[in-house]
Amino acid sequence: MVVEAAADDDNGITASLLLIRNSDASSSADSENPAENSPIEQVALTVPTTDDFTLPCVTFRTWILGTLACVVLSFLNQFFWYRREPLSITSISAQIAVVPLGHLMASAITDRVFFKGRRFEFSLNPGPFNVKEHVLITIFANSGAGNVYAIHIVSAVKIFYKRSMTFLVALLVVLTTQVLGFGWAGIFRRYLVEPAAMWWPQNLVQVSLFRALHEREKRPKGGLTRNEFFLIAFICSLTYYVFPGYLFPMLTSLSWICWIYPKSVLAQQLGSGLHGLGIGAIGLDWSSISSYLGSPLASPWFATANIALGFTTVVYVVTPLAYWLNVYKAQNFPIFSDGLFTSVGQKYNITAITDDKFHIDLEAYDREGPLYMSTFFSIYYGIGFACLTATIVHVVLFHGRDIWRLSKSALQKRHMDVHTKLMRRYVQVPEWWFMCILIVNVAATLLTCHFYNDQLQLPWWGVFLACGVAFFFTLPVGVIAATTNQVIQLPTFALKCMAT
């Protein structure tokens, strides 16, 4: 679990670092020298090339609204994670919500300067609510918007193994896996943030929104400004979601084949959008429409087409063939399920083959028989491992030379786009800070696994192995995420194998 949590955190944190890199310049017009602009067309069209260095950033408003957004989004995403169709509330929601709050604080809080003329001079209200404060608040929100992957450990122990984990141990597991991502973020910053080729498509959506919310533009005759268009689209989408989200949840999947043949097993396997292949099923809920892709509006066309082709091949070609050819007794189990089964299709009793310390009892396993998974679930894991291998090969072939140059500290000698040059004027967080965080966190993980080994069963060498795998995969996975908006995840099954 340490591996995937670290990789997920690093991608989210690295994206947040790039967010401020791309958004710091969003308060003024484009540069007069287009030759310095980003080589990525989408970035050049979206992100301005100038910056106002006088705007205050770390303010009282930033800390209050940022902390509030982080806490609220963290709670809501974790709360809704246990739904069949998890509702994910992204940092864009906080990005929208804090605008009126920021302007309200700017107009209501005193502008008195405390300790004026002294070293610690500060003001609770340094002026109008500006775009840089807004970006920092969104970064706070983004840090809490991601679902805490380590919670799966706590949930699995309680739900599947019928065991308990103390609150302290669960808290330590969550904190150590989350903080580990901050260490990776600093180490891989020069590879995943500073190069112009690492453009993080999802962040361009937020940059466009920042500009719409803060830049004043003249309304064209017979048209709408970006702010007006956004407000109309926001109100319409929010109003519509009341129907599939609350009033008529069946709009999530309308399976007309199942309506025609309600008692046919084959019809359920083919047409069910929740328990089958979903052939002909119609989804009117955005969470189901975008479930296999994440955010299709933010992904490049080539990534969307690639994912769609792979999705179609796996779901409508490979899975049906494997099922109806009865590969590994596939027809004894549902065609689409994440459950574990016996050879005759009954639910597998996990607690019968494990002892109080979560160790497998081989004699009990022989009595219960082999463990089986559904056809789709098995293929899903296989595709997950194949994607990891393909990711490494792709990054080596297409980005290997650039990574080697950056490893030799040649960043200063290569061409930098205007956004990287603008960020050079700011004092960056030293890399050794991240190294210290990483070392302290690994030490804390080792101590946690040592003193609470009866609940975690992870030996000291397992911690180093997990960190090594995370270090190895973070860069290639990050490169794919930064260029395609698709995050390749290490299957949980691999982590369980490593832990045992």
TrEMBL record:
Signal peptide positions (record): none
Listed transmembrane segments: 63-82, 94-115, 135-154, 166-185, 229-262, 274-294, 301-325, 379-398, 432-453, 459-482
Subcellular location(s) of the protein: Membrane
A Pfam entry, by short name: OPT
Keywords recorded for this protein, A-Z: Membrane, Peptide transport, Protein transport, Transmembrane, Transmembrane helix, Transport
NCBIfam families, per database record: OPT_sfam
Protein name: Oligopeptide transporter 7
Organism the protein comes from: Kalanchoe fedtschenkoi (Lavender scallops)
